[in-house]
Amino acid sequence: MYNIYKSTNTIKEVIRIEFRENISEKELDHFQKSVIKIMNTEYSKLSFLQLDKEDFVSHIFFALKEVKEKYDINKNVPLIAYANFIIKRRILDYAKYLKRDKRKITLKLINSYRSSLTEDGQTYLERDIEKFSLEKSEELERNKNIKEMINHFIENDAQGKEAEIIKMLYKGYNQREILEKLNIKRKEFLVCKEKLKNLFKGFIKVSTNI
Questions:
Q1: What is the mean pLDDT of the chain?
Q2: How far apart are CA 75 and CA 149, in angstroms?
Q3: Does 50 map to a domain?
Q4: Where do the H-state alpha helices sit in the chain?
Q5: Which residue among 35, 122, 148, 187 is buried most deeply as judged by most CB within 10 Å?
Q6: pLDDT tens digits, one per residue of 96-140
Q7: DSSP characters for 82-134?
Q8: Is residue 51 part of a domain?
């Protein structure tokens, strides 16, 4: 069985070459680990599609090249969050293509051998066709990307008590409760909300332009 880890060093080197001038050494290391994690996770998730190992890895390379060409720092979306989004999106596109191709082959087999299929065999084929729900996958990936983007902002860009404000917002606290518990002024709270709003605007623009 193909060991996807053999490609990690090459991927890391590509990331270093392409992005070392854009981010710090610490961010570069985080970037590499993030991409490798995505690559290993997605390869495992899509293994039922009988992936071509070289083809899969090549999509990672092309996605990284796309990130390098399209990333715009003025859109207020962190590079790593943007890269993760692009890579997952391209893997999803690849999976769609494989699923369509697999469906065509499967349906052809069903039509050709319908009379000889057993009940168990038919169930297995149907399960293969429906196994990968693209709509659900897209929704999960989008939510995951948003969460990663917010975490990146909290860890790298948040100032003062902005990290605590964001965490409390997502726990359901209202404005009054946050002001009282953190002992901050309303202006500080509104500035944080505006930053969060701009962050989401940038993410939405990136998503709709892909």
A1: 77
A2: 13
A3: yes
A4: 8-19, 25-45, 53-70, 79-113, 119-130, 134-156, 162-170, 175-182, 186-208
A5: 35
A6: 887 776 665 555 554 554 444 445 554 454 555 555 455 556 667
A7: HHHHHHHHHHHHHHHHHHHHHHHHHHHHHHHHGGG--HHHHHHHHHHHHSS-H
A8: yes
Q: Is 159 left (phi over 0), alpha (psi -120 to 50) or beta?
A: beta
Of 31, 9, 10, nearest in space to 20 by CA: 31
Closest-CA residue to 200 (of 173, 180, 170, 178): 170
Of 95, 7, 1, 3, which Cα lies nearest the Cα of 49? 95
Q: Is residue 187 part of a domain?
A: no
* Tokens representing residue 81 in the block: 């969050």
Domain that holds residue 104: 4-132
Measured at the CA of 12, the angle between CA 8 and CA 13, to 5 degrees, comes to: 120
pTM: 0.49
* Residue 114 belongs to some domain of the structure: yes
135-190 pLDDT tens trace: 556 667 777 777 888 888 888 888 888 889 888 887 888 989 999 999 999 999 99
